[in-house]
Design goal:
It is a single chain. By secondary structure, the protein is of the alpha+beta class. The protein has one domain: Ubiquitin-like (UB roll) (Roll). The radius of gyration is 12 Å and the shape is globular. Bound molecules: FE2/S2 (inorganic) cluster. FE2/S2 (inorganic) cluster binds next to loops. Pfam families: Fer2 (PF00111). One of its GO terms (molecular function) is 2 iron, 2 sulfur cluster binding. This is 2Fe-2S iron-sulfur cluster binding domain-containing protein.
């Protein structure tokens, strides 16, 4: 499934993410700057923060309570903020462009 990350420097990185993995893994495998994933996907570090476009909110699902709590700690938290390690890659995400906010 093809997904594009738009970095804080406005660089566009298109990746071919494997279904069943997470968006964070796809970012790390492609060295997307700004996705550090310090906790390795345990929903504990919030260094995998991305902003999902409205059109893909449904496809990416709702954040869990734990994820919401962590997002609330971020100063640059927006309405569509998500932790990319909590988003499963599925064919429904084809063509999605997510923004990587400045840290
Ligand atoms: Fe740590 Fe996502 S990788 S919260």
């Amino acid at each position: 499934t093809k997904v594009t990350f738009i970095t804080a420097d406005d660089e566009r990185i298109e990746v071919d993410a494997e279904d069943g993995t997470t968006l964070m893994e796809a970012a790390v495998n492609n060295s997307v700057p700004g996705i550090d994933a310090d906790c390795g996907g345990a929903c504990a570090c919030a260094t995998c923060h991305v902003i999902v476009p409205d059109a893909f909110k449904e496809a990416t699902g709702k954040p869990s309570e734990d994820e919401e709590a962590l997002l609330d700690f971020l100063d640059n938290h927006e309405e569509n903020s998500r932790l990319s390690c909590q988003i499963e890659v599925t064919p429904a995400l084809e063509g999605m462009e997510v923004t990587v906010p400045e840290m």
